[in-house]
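task queued by scheduler; priority normal; single chain, no ligands, no partner chains; default sampling; output format set to structure tokens
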Amino acid sequence: NLTMSDRLLSVQVDQAMVLTISNPEMRNALGPNVYTTGVEALNAAETNPDVRAVIITGEGAHFCGGGNLNRLLENRQKDPVVQAESIAALHNWIDSIRTFPKPVIAAVEGAAAGAGLSLALACDFVVAADNAKFVMAYSSVGLSPDGGGSWALARALPRATAMKMLMAAQPMTTPDLRQLGVVSHAAAPGQALQTALNLAKDLCARAPNVLASIKELVNDAADQTLSAHLAAEQKHFVKNLHHPNGGEGIRSFMEKRTAHYK
């Protein structure tokens, strides 16, 4: 069965929840199963104080090859609402990653293609093996993007570079996207997940309320006037100063010791 071969596995490593797209014989092609499990996993992680970061990765050689073309061909024979509902489920997951109040890290080996690249772009950090490949191949199969990829690239890249990836379906390498600031951390081949875990360890040692504030501020910045943003910064700053972690952070710095945040 095409739709049930896609699974999302969840395992906790220290304070990081690692979500693995597991469908390696199809290059971890995405499907409705992954989307619903993904949203459920984030809902569970949001309320769990033992989870302070989430890592999304793929099983085996590739991060994610995007949508399942066989399933898309099948959907052409069905009512358009079938495809619309599938994309709504993907977009629900993308939206929940963006609004999730803890850091989300993509750990990319091999290919991140189509919706797989959109998924990586929804994360707060992209850790990628030096030999990873990134491609928005939609236009090569007569389709337009989904998963927020066009939104993310339009904001992250100069227009002509976004068009090179989206219209011309030009593949990009880790060095390309690192130079453009889309990939945050490069890793030796086979080491993307370990590098992501190291990054998660650093993030998990920081105050969770502060990371949540930063994510909210960065998310809102794109569509906000400076004066509205300054007001939001003020509100977050005062709230975080008066949070117990604010006192712990300042005192630990002055006392030259490691902070322990709740």
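post-processing summary
- The radius of gyration is 19 Å.
- The mean pLDDT is 96.
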